[in-house]
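W.,

You were right to be curious about this one. When I first looked at the sequence I had no strong expectations either way, so I just let the prediction run and decided to look at it fresh. Below is the sequence, 188 residues in total, followed by the output.
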Amino acid sequence: KPVGDMLRFVVGPDDAIVPDTDAKADGRGVWISLGAKSVAEAVKKKAFAKSLKANVSVPDDLAGLARLRLEQRLLGALGLATKAGQIATGATRVKAAIEAGEAVALLTATDAAPDGRDKMFSALRGRHRAASEAGETGDMVPHFELLGSAQLGLALGIENVIHAALPRGAAAQSALARAERLARYIAN
């Protein structure tokens, strides 16, 4: 499989398996399909000790730890996008970014109210319809519900973030890639 479809784990200094979400840690690693179910199955089958041919300790909730690390990487990328000025927050600004075709992704807090979520979906559908009528090609703007409002607020340095849009730009693209990776991990 391509590296993007995998998650690497390495042996830490205490002989415990830890997620290497960026695949940059030194040493021998074990690659598992990107997905919480795959990681849980690998733990159950003792795949880490077999693959490394060594006694290693595996945390009981390795799948949860991997998700936490992927979330942390997304939060860091969102913080960098904020510093680069490549994020819009607040319902009005987010909706305007979507309608103008500037948004490459929409983030909604997992604890968002249904009516606010519906308004953003409506803006996304309207933008997609307008783009189709204008003959523009391209994919629908992806929507992610991966983090709570408190987590988003902490990453962005703003209290109570419910909606955020990522416009075009390198920092926003990095955050989008991390959001897609976390979403795939959760889904699989």
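Here's what jumped out at me. The chain has seven helices and seven strands. And, maybe more interesting for your project: The mean pLDDT is 92.

Coffee later to discuss?

I.
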